[in-house]
């Protein structure tokens, strides 16, 4: 998710754009600012770290900045933008030893440590921050998974957070990368991911595109565009292939619903 290196936050890539009483757009850098080295060997999925072994994703000054913005916001919505996905994404499970390398074994979920799954204590810190400020009208935008996701993030005793992850525009899709590495079709892998991650509302690993965000005081509408095969010339006409809505219902919990729209005319 490219950003100009001219932010107004604690690091060059942190930005806060207030849009009147409608929305506070908060783009927090999860790549460079305070990010510590992720767990694993960097070669791919790895067992999820425990909270005790969770590295730091945001610098302390980023947390202070985020806490201040969320705390003073009076806008209808807060849209939080992260370069990497916040919601949990389990890929499977496997036994692993404790941090000391000794017994007992534990069964740990297999995750992509590059996203917030590799920094579980930081994700809980974000949820705790939103709970402390009593904010249920926060929606998360993310990317860098090379696929389309619409997910919810559970909170104890509160409405789930809604997150939309935008696909790649020109880089290989997650589906194509899985096809190159696994002996089974990526569509089967997608079914497996959906089966073990019931919080995923929509999943598409096969298509490129971009995400259009339309915000009003009642609803945020996310529309994913399908650019067709980015290598072909000419490209196929852009179509709106999927849309999600988050409705602002005052004191009631925001809800996420999925719909399929008819292709837009060329």
Jot down its keywords.
Purple Acid Phosphatase, chain A, domain 2; disordered C terminus; 4 helices; seven-stranded mixed beta sheet; globular
Quick check: average pLDDT? 81
Q: First CA to last CA: what distance?
A: 27 Å
Could you say how many structural domains there are in total? 1
Instruction: Identify the strand order in the major beta sheet.
Output: 1-2-4-7-9-8-10
Instruction: Please name the CATH topology.
Output: Purple Acid Phosphatase, chain A, domain 2
Contiguous helical run count: 4
What is the string of SSEs from the N terminus onward? Answer: EEEHEEEHEEEHHEEEEE
Supply the CATH architecture. 4-Layer Sandwich
Shape: globular
CATH homologous superfamily designation: Alkaline phosphatase D (PhoD)
Weakly predicted, low-confidence segments? 228-241, 249-266
| Overall strand count | 14
Strand content: 25-35%
**Helix content range of the residues, please?**
10-25%
Tell me about the largest β-sheet. 7 strands, mixed
Radius of gyration (CA) equals 19 Å
Characterization of the model:
The protein has 266 residues and is of the alpha+beta class. The chain has four helices and 14 strands. Strands 1-2-4-7-9-8-10 form a seven-stranded mixed β-sheet. Strands 11-12-13-14 form a four-stranded antiparallel β-sheet, with no helix packed on it. A hairpin with a 7-residue loop joins strand 13 and strand 14. Helix 3 (174-181) packs across helix 4 (186-196). The longest helix has 13 residues, at 60-72. The two termini are 27 Å apart.
């Amino acid at each position: 998710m490219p950003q100009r290196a001219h932010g107004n936050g604690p690091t060059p890539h942190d930005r806060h754009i207030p849009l009147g009483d409608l929305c506070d757009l908060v783009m927090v850098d999860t790549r460079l600012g305070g990010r510590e080295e992720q767990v694993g060997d960097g070669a791919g999925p790895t067992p999820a770290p425990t909270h005790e072994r969770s590295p730091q994703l945001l610098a302390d000054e980023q947390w202070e900045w985020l806490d201040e913005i969320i705390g003073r916001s009076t806008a209808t919505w807060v849209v939080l933008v992260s370069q990497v996905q916040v919601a949990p994404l389990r890929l499977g499970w496997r036994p692993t030893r404790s941090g000391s390398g000794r017994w007992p074994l534990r069964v740990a979920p297999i995750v992509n440590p590059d996203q917030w799954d590799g920094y579980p204590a930081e994700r809980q810190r974000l949820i705790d921050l939103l709970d402390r400020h009593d904010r249920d009208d926060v929606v998360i935008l993310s990317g860098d998974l090379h696929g389309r996701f619409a997910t919810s993030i559970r909170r104890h005793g509160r409405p789930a957070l809604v997150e939309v992850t935008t696909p790649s525009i020109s880089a290989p899709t997650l589906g194509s990368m899985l096809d190159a590495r696994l002996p089974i079709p990526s569509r089967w892998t997608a079914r497996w991911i959906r089966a073990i991650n019931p919080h995923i509302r929509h999943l598409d690993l096969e298509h490129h595109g971009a995400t259009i965000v339309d915000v009003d005081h009642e609803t945020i509408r996310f529309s994913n565009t399908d650019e067709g095969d980015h290598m072909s010339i000419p490209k196929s006409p852009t179509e709106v292939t999927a849309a999600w809505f988050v409705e602002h219902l005052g004191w009631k919990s925001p809800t996420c619903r999925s719909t399929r729209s008819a292709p837009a005319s060329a």
